[in-house]
Amino acid sequence: MTRRNSSLGFFGLFGRSEDLRRLDAALRSVDLHPALVPEGVKLTIVNLMKDHWPDAEPPPEAYPPLAGLFAYCAVGPEAFAAVNGTDRVNDVEARIEHALDGNGGIDAQLVLLALHARLMHPEIIARFELSVE
């Protein structure tokens, strides 16, 4: 499978790629500073998005919901709610429940990524009884 636009720009010569800039902006919009997410994790997120949208680049509107889910996993419900509100918390928690019910998809992949990257907030691990087996 070939990838469209490299996530590193053109060998890093022309700056940060558009997909990583969009992800960074989306993370900022939910109050998770992009510097707190390792580059390898961000690259994995954009590659998962490209896998989810195999025939085209992920649309710009796809980034904020995924960044919100990832931020919730990283900072926990209290800090996420303080900035994003309880409606957004309820939405993200419903998405996690749906993903954990065997519905998979990109939400399940992001939860698994946060867990494996050791970026998952302990309260989220306990709340959803998550483990790496």
From TrEMBL:
- Name of the protein described by the UniProt record: Uncharacterized protein
Q: Which organism is this protein's natural source?
A: Neoaquamicrobium sediminum
